[in-house]
């Protein structure tokens, strides 16, 4: 396995895990194995998509996030609520009420990530207008998709639009404005994302496209939901920041980003397995007639994130209604965003590198040799993809065998074959006569000595 350091939000509770193998087939990157009656997540393959959190019937997978106590580490704190947060409460709950509840549970300020999404919308539009070499361009907003591309489709890294995700821009803007209004240094302000999914937790702890995140912590929507509910209805909070319009709020569901950008031909795909299908098509040079591809790992988009509480279909309706109510008149100054875009404000600051988890070996000659052994091993396996070996399919067992992580006899069919062979050998031995008796008349091979 690679020795690279990976941070992961998605974690296994060994005590709760029953080794039932339900999760191994649902994992889009084949990152889970069950060994010794317990699941094991392969760090270099996991993309923190959260599928296994949804699948596990024993609730053995969970996301590690920050807690409200971390707010105490900062002189000033700002909440960065994801658009999907506003779709988690009963219909009619105003955005102001949710922001006031965030203030009541301990945040000094609230900077809406949907407002930053409106800035990013303009930046992406500009990028699309000025760059025509690569098509389709893929949205950079879903970190699980970015990690998926690094792990399984490294050839498509060039298709990722090199514009920072809204949460990063929200953290940056919030700190700049707090500094100019209150004179508080950016490093004294703690910016906390209120996240619908574990991939966004990971993207803050181990950012992609930037050396350091402007976000200091991540709280899950589900983790603070109870506190927020208890504080809904509080009033008296006035933020210094602008409010988002329906354009930014729409980013919380599949298709919302494309509607906001509104130029060129575009496609919105949600659900990690659908994203994989589409990425495979792009690898085959299909879909080059599409300008922009919005890919979101969660079904329905961020409203379907593993750390939300509301049913994603209900949340979608609520978000659409809220976006309609807020309208499309944005409060951001598009001309100044275009100027910032030209000065590189939204650009990735760091190249995205492939994650070498699929390489069989760093040494090309050894990798080729291992691939040959893998193919040969695979041919000898039954091809049933039954999962009883603890791997998601026969190919991943073959890979594990080649990499020294598993044995051929982990396959029940190969084990049975081996036992049959051993039984045949034992039977054969049981027929054997000592050399002194061999050839004597009247002594049958099966007679006791
Ligand atoms: S689904 Fe996976 S994590 Fe959950 S109990 Fe079964 S093997 Fe363990
Ligand atoms: S979070 Fe996603 S990639 Fe990671 S182990 Fe779970 S299902 Fe697999």
TrEMBL record:
SUPFAM superfamilies named in the record: 4Fe-4S ferredoxins, Fe-only hydrogenase
Pfam families recorded: Fe_hyd_lg_C, Fer4_10, FeS
Location of the 4Fe-4S domain: 369-428
InterPro entries: 4Fe-4S_dom, 4Fe4S_Fe-S-bd, 4Fe4S_Fe_S_CS, 4Fe4S_Ferredoxin_RnfB, Fe_hydrogenase, Fe_hydrogenase_lsu_C
Keywords assigned by UniProt, alphabetized: 4Fe-4S, Iron, Iron-sulfur, Metal-binding
GO molecular function: 4 iron, 4 sulfur cluster binding; metal ion binding
Annotated ranges, domain 4Fe-4S ferredoxin-type: 8-36, 37-66
Tree of life domain: Bacteria
Transmembrane spans: none
Name this polypeptide is given: Iron only hydrogenase large subunit-like protein
Organism for this UniProt entry: Thermosediminibacter litoriperuensis
Lineage: Bacteria, Bacillati, Bacillota, Clostridia, Thermosediminibacterales
């Amino acid at each position: 396995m690679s020795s690279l350091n990976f941070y992961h939000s998605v974690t296994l509770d060994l005590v709760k895990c029953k080794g039932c193998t339900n999760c191994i087939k649902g994992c889009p990157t084949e990152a889970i194995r069950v060994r010794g009656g317990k699941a094991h997540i392969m760090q270099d393959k996991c993309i923190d998509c959260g599928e296994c959190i949804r699948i596990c019937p024993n609730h053995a997978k969970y996301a590690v996030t920050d807690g409200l106590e971390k707010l105490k580490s900062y002189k000033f704190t700002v909440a960065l609520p994801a658009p999907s947060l506003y779709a988690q409460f009963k219909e009619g709950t105003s955005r102001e009420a949710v922001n006031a509840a965030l203030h009541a549970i301990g945040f000094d300020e609230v900077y809406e990530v949907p407002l930053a999404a409106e800035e990013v919308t303009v930046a992406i539009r500009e990028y699309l207008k000025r760059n025509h070499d690569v098509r389709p361009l893929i949205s950079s907003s879903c970190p699980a998709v970015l990690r998926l591309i690094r792990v399984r489709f490294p050839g498509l890294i060039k298709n990722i639009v090199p514009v920072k995700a809204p949460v990063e821009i929200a953290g940056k803007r919030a700190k700049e404005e707090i500094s100019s209004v209150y004179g508080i240094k950016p490093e004294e302000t703690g910016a906390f994302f209120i996240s619908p999914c574990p991939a966004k937790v990971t993207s803050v702890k181990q950012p992609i496209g930037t050396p350091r995140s402007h976000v200091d912590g991540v709280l899950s929507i589900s983790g603070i939901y109870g506190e927020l509910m208890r504080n809904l209805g509080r009033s008296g909070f006035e933020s210094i920041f602008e409010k988002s319009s329906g354009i930014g709020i729409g980013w919380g569901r599949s298709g919302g980003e494309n509607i906001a950008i509104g130029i060129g031909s575009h496609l919105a795909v949600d659900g990690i397995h659908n994203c994989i299908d589409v990425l495979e098509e792009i690898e085959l040079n299909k879909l080059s007639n599409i300008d922009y591809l919005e890919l979101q790992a969660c079904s329905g988009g961020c409203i379907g994130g593993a750390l939300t509480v509301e049913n994603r279909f209900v949340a979608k309706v609520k978000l659409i209604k809220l976006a309609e109510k807020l309208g499309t008149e944005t409060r951001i100054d598009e001309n100044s965003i275009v100027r910032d875009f030209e000065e590189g404000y939204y650009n990735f600051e760091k190249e995205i590198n492939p994650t070498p988890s699929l390489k069989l070996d760093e040494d090309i000659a050894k990798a080729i040799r291992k691939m040959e052994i893998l193919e040969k091993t695979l041919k000898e396996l039954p091809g049933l993809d039954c999962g009883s070996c603890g791997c998601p399919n026969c190919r991943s067992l073959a890979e594990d065998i080649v990499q020294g992580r598993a044995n051929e006899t982990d396959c029940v069919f190969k084990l049975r074959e081996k036992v049959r062979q051993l039984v045949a050998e034992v039977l054969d031995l049981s027929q054997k006569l000592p050399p002194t008796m061999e050839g004597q008349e009247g002594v049958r091979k099966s007679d006791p000595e």
